[in-house]
């Protein structure tokens, strides 16, 4: 069994309220807060409340949690008024993807027309 929280993890500290963040959504499984360095007019990080390092460690037991993260992102898009125009959901894993924080998080990006593919 892995513990629900990692005392060294910055996103665990945000979930637990030990360090401040602009939290815009919270339920029993998921917390979402504004990215400190936004790359889009709307840039929100949606994280599981339980510490999960990244997609590489996911097991079937995490399926409901991952589903809750995606549905929370969808609800936030509606809450923030971008659902109709659209939004992008991104999970970075590993060095090539420039993953920096080792607590699973989904970027919710919206507020302007985007290009594809990403850089
Ligand atoms: P990654 O590159 O790991 O996919 O994304 C990590 C994201 O976390 C970055 O966009 C970065 O700006 C954001 N971030 C890092 N530290 C903090 C913090 O203390 N508070 C908030 N709100 N965002 C953070
Ligand atoms: Zn964590």
Descriptive report:
This protein has 119 residues and is an alpha+beta fold. It has one domain: HIT family, subunit A (2-Layer Sandwich). It contains two helices and five strands; from the N terminus they run αβββαββ. A five-stranded antiparallel β-sheet has the order 1-2-3-5-4, with helices on one face. Strand 2 and strand 3 form a beta hairpin. It is globular. Bound molecules: guanosine-5'-monophosphate (5GP) and zinc ion (ZN). The site of zinc ion has 6 residues, from helix 1.
Q: What does the oligomeric state look like here?
A: single chain
The portion of residues assigned to helices is 10-25%
Give a quick account of the main beta sheet: strands, pairing sense, barrel closure.
Answer: 5 strands, antiparallel
Small-molecule binders here are: guanosine-5'-monophosphate, zinc ion
- Using only C-alpha atoms, the radius of gyration works out to 14 Å
Low-confidence stretches: none
Task: Give the ordered list of helices and strands.
Answer: HEEEHEE
Strand content: 15-25%
- What's the number of helices? 2
- Overall pLDDT metric: 97
Helix-strand category: alpha+beta
The CATH architecture: 2-Layer Sandwich
Please report the distance between the alpha carbons of the first and last residues. Answer: 37 Å
CATH superfamily, by name, is HIT-like
Number of E-state strands: 5
CATH class identity: Alpha Beta
